[in-house]
Amino acid sequence: MCVRCIYEDTLPEDVTMICLDMRSFQDPQRDRNKVNHVGTHWRVIDGIVHNRLFQETLHMAITRIREVLAQKGKVCMITYCNRGRHRSVAWAIILDHVLMHMQDLPTPALLMHSARDTWSFGACGECSVCKRPSERRDQALEQALQMARQMV
User: Fold this and answer.
1) pTM assigned to the model
2) 3-state DSSP: the chain helix, strand, coil percent, rounded to 5?
3) Which one, 75, 111, 137, 151, has the greatest CB density within 10 A?
């Protein structure tokens, strides 16, 4: 079943769902330094921000958000990948950060990770390293924000 089909019936009619497929980004499952962590880890976030597809995908997401806001005013963003532990989690955190700091975009009301219950299977389950504030994570999030601001 597609992501849209799972969630669409639960949304009010005045909310537009935007689904972002993150499967085209490299799967951290292939990287020994990232495989045992989830998308909250600084290396996963940094890897997404420095991916060759990042700016194009960020631009597409922000453009789509602005289009929806001009028409309806309410947006539900869903990021997904294969397992919901790395790429989609990192993207949700990045988008949350960008939306909180861009003045013409809405502040996210809620950030949820629907696959959080599966994080302990083959990953750290959000260990202390993934939870801990990190200067490198903050730097990657700020780079994403600067890129978003240049797209205005």
Assistant:
1) 0.77
2) 50, 10, 45
3) 137
